[in-house]
Design goal:
CATH architecture of the largest domain: 3-Layer(aba) Sandwich
Largest sheet: 6 strands, antiparallel
Number of domains: 3
Number of helices: 9
Strand order of the largest sheet: 4-3-6-1-2-5
Strand content: 25-35%
Shape: globular
Number of strands: 19
Radius of gyration: 23 Å
Bound molecules: flavin-adenine dinucleotide, FE2/S2 (inorganic) cluster
Structural class: alpha/beta
Length: 377
């Protein structure tokens, strides 16, 4: 058969659009992603499929997240979303969003993001990944939209066929709220090393359930994964769920070095760290009078005094200002703002790119002033 006859190009190459891109997507070079598809997963959850705007492939670890910038109502809002697709399918990148009542971004995404539209993204980021903790057996525990990082990990194991034994226990309100239900059930049918155990709080009117009811308890854990102490455990879900799982495992004598969890609400986790930082600060303040700088915010027309040893975000919060923030440690990009003038010291963890820094952007949560400042906020 001729090349033309079988549809292949010279040397058997696949024609576009099936030819895999060679280049890796790099947010430093081009941060624009194009929405290619939108999928309704449940009544209040959608998946958005993205592609690079120029040919490229995504490289990330299963469980990592991206920070997206959304232009909504004349403002730029930053939010983090876990990559729900696996790195084994590198031509596309998906994220899966649950509507949060009253939430500006999750509702905007559900109502507005359509194929063909472009969004800006930074990443990938995060250390919550099975790749960092290779093990023969895993236990995945998720609640609600916390299923997304574990889904990426499960899809990766499924695609690579490495034979890892995975028990995936997912808690949802009703059977109709189980995200990725059909896919997880199909994965369990074809792979005997993979078990999917949904637990629902109550049976709803929309979908039947033959699974477990109630909350995750020690009795359920003993039933579905009696060998849980031999497993590497990954947990993601609402803060109360994660706290309950932590207590349950610790009480059961689980080696907590093999327990890994991630919160979608950084502020809950940051409370402890903040308390420690404030204690150290009080000590410092007692030891010496710290120099302070004037920081002016142009949009809100506020000017505050910021001690040299305090971040601009922390000082603004103490002054009663409400600035956007999430992780408070230079990771997610939510507090990104334009510095109009002045100097500061920024200790970020990847939430901002070099070219943004070059363009005068700063992360207020991890920046301490070294002169008076003017910030566009
Ligand atoms: C690392 C990371 C990964 C994330 N991955 C995902 C993901 O894969 N899918 C996803 O849907 N969301 C994810 N989130 C949450 C997401 O960033 C947004 O916070 C969420 O979509 C709400 O944004 P919003 O602007 O609509 O509401 P916001 O104004 O940001 O939030 C409104 C309120 O709802 C709470 N809230 C936030 N998210 C949820 C939720 N999922 N369920 C219930 N309450 C919530 C917030 O704490 C806040 O009190 C992730 C967050 C982080 C930090
Ligand atoms: S709040 Fe996350 S980078 Fe500042």
């Amino acid at each position: 058969m001729s090349m033309a006859g079988n549809g292949l190009g010279p040397n058997g190459a696949l024609p576009a659009p099936f030819a895999p891109a060679e280049a890796l997507w790099d947010c430093e070079a081009d941060d624009t992603l194009v929405c290619r598809a939108v999928r309704q997963e449940t009544h209040d959850v959608k998946t958005f499929v993205l592609a690079p705007s120029t040919p490229g492939r995504f490289r990330f670890q299963p469980g990592q997240f991206m920070t997206y910038a959304f232009e909504i109502g004349g403002e730029t809002l930053y939010r983090c979303y876990t990559i729900s697709s696996p790195p084994t399918r590198p031509d596309r990148l998906s994220f899966t969003v649950k509507r949060v009542p009253g939430g500006p971004v999750s509702n905007w995404l559900h109502d507005n993001l359509r194929p063909g539209m472009r969004i800006r993204a930074v990443g990938p980021m995060g250390e919550f990944t099975s790749t960092a903790h290779p093990a023969p057996k895993y236990l995945f525990l998720s609640g609600g939209s916390g299923i997304t990082p574990l889904m990426s990990m499960a899809r990766t194991f499924g695609d690579l066929g490495g034979g890892e034994d995975v028990v995936f226990v997912h808690s949802a309100r009703t059977p109709a709220d189980i995200i990725f239900r059909e896919e997880l059930e199909a994965m369990a049918r074809v792979d005997e090393a993979f078990r999917f155990v949904p637990i629902v709080e109550r049976v709803g009117p929309l979908a039947p359930s033959s699974g477990l009811r109630g909350y995750l308890t020690r009795a359920i854990l003993d039933l579905v994964a009696p060998d849980f102490r031999e497993r590497e455990v990954f947990v993601c879900g609402p803060a109360p769920y994660m706290a309950a799982v932590r207590a349950l495992l610790a009480e059961a004598g689980f080696d907590m070095r093999r327990h890994h969890d991630e919160s979608f609400d950084f502020s809950a986790l940051a409370v402890e760290e903040k308390a420690e930082a404030m204690e150290a600060e009080t000590q410092l303040e007692a030891e010496a009078a710290v120099k302070t700088y004037r920081v002016e915010f142009t949009k809100t027309r506020r000017t505050i005094e910021v001690p040299a040893d305090m971040t601009v975000l922390e000082a603004a919060k103490r002054a009663g200002m409400r600035l956007p923030s999430s992780c408070a440690k230079g990771l997610c990009g939510t507090c990104k703002s334009k510095k109009v003038s002045g100097t500061l010291e920024m200790a970020h963890q990847g939430g901002i790119r070099q070219r943004e820094i070059d363009a005068g952007m700063v992360l207020l949560c991890c920046s301490k002033p070294t002169s008076d400042l003017v910030i566009e906020r």
